[in-house]
């Protein structure tokens, strides 16, 4: 195995840099002037290029992850007789090493699992230490801190839950011994892996990480520069930590030498210490929750792509319940669109100058991202984008007011499914008109007869994350989304102090709570900080089924902070409504809105005609890089199809 993974570890992807630019917004006739905001939303992770991917086809098994080494580890486990859960654990441990900016054992995760008959949801989300309260992110004058003041250091570190949750699921659905699942990651940590173009690019733009002495010595050379592309990076400290977890289980991370190192790192930060304790770690428990599942009708690809023939197919879309907001928001967006004429609107075909038509890296002539001749690509039309944007604003207004940890926050009308009730969505959809409702003029709806007393949460940036989709030969499938929140988390690397370089990064997941606990009228915000509470998330691991047969259709998910909701909704819509392949659906230009933001369009992916048409409808339009990281595996009558995001370095592998 060592030689296999040492060889694989030399792979790295060379991809081109895409520069961000802004477009000036114009005024629609008879509408208020449109302006470009001075402070656009912050990207979850920086862009590192766009390299087209060839569609993947397989028959028996598939693993889609954010890094080739993680996908290879997962496939190795499946070929060795492991289950989808076994493969996910092996892949996630490798991601801790090779994609440290996004996820790892110092963070949390949500997992959606299908065992051939039943869908189950497992919550490994971080939770707040017992010693914190709602003033955690307020300054001495009671004003919310800025994100930059909160993120770096121990203040925002939540109790990590990914490993505890993965162990829980392994006890039910694992086929191979727990210990064997760590072997690929241990081998790579000891022998080293090649720094990829993306990892180097993100390190080069990172300013806070080098202030942590452990992380600075590990990720940067003696001159303070990030290690170059291709540098063999070894992490012997993490290798020994993996060995401990492999031998002793998840509690070796939560109670013992590693737990002591975590607490020491968090509480000992010189400028921004946190309140994590050994008892917090020892008390943490993963939770099995009831998944959020709803019906969705779309044209049947086996009958007719023309909706006018009424040849439809009903899908069952399942996702994570709160504290994740993803499944509810995605379901609301899709449901609201079905109450408009969106289904009659096909995507435009245009020359997408920014999309690189090179399916290998490096491209011809060794020029990363070289364009091999533009070709027409499907792009959502302005009319469809208008409807999608209005539906999204309604969904995000509900999300801001209602969604929080269900152990602390009651659902509206006594049931989270009230937000997906067809009658409620039909009522909300009547608010969608020919012009934009505006960035600041959308309020939450009222499902049920009793109004909530909660105030809407003000907009805050959300970050980080990684996604894994797996289908095995035994009828199991899963979607696993994991995170340390912001890229590089809290910029704290845990090391036991034994003289070995490396370790693992800690999350800053508590910044997903509302910094302000109340609004100006004193009303409580559902997603405020409370001891033991899990912060609201946008992670959206998703499994889709044919309702009539119960058969799996696809597994998908993405990183991207709050924009995850849009990345997943876009990919689902393009796959189920427009019948695009997974790879084509993922490659579609990105777009989306957040609370109080303009309509965000992926840089250089939409024509001036589309932008002008949106502005004529009253939308403020802002171009920005939108670095999704969607993975998808689709089950068809002839086998498996896979897709991975051309904006990052992931791959689909399998048989």
Please describe the topology of this protein.
Layout: H1 2-8, E1 56-58, E2 62-65, H2 68-79, H3 84-98, E3 108-114, E4 119-124, H4 147-151, H5 162-173, H6 183-191, E5 193-194, H7 197-204, H8 213-219, E6 232-233, H9 236-248, H10 251-254, H11 257-267, H12 278-283, E7 287-289, E8 292-299, E9 312-319, H13 326-337, E10 348-351, E11 376-379, H14 382-402, H15 422-429, E12 466-471, E13 477-483, E14 493-494, E15 504-505, E16 542-546, E17 552-557, H16 564-576, H17 582-587, E18 591-592, E19 599-602, H18 608-616, E20 621-624, E21 631-636, E22 639-644, E23 651-654
Parallel strand pairs: 19-20
Antiparallel strand pairs: 1-22, 2-12, 2-23, 3-4, 3-13, 4-7, 5-6, 8-9, 9-16, 10-11, 12-13, 14-15, 16-17, 17-21, 18-19, 21-22
Give a structural overview.
By secondary structure, this protein is α+β, with helices and mostly antiparallel strands. The chain is globular. Strands 1-22-21-17-16-9-8 form a seven-stranded antiparallel beta sheet. Strands 7-4-3-13-12-2-23 form a seven-stranded antiparallel beta sheet. It has a three-stranded mixed beta sheet with strand order 18-19-20. 58% of the residues are buried. Helix content is 27%, strand content 16%. The model is unreliable at 1-40, 304-309 and 353-373 (pLDDT under 50). A hairpin with a 5-residue loop joins strand 16 (542-546) and strand 17 (552-557).
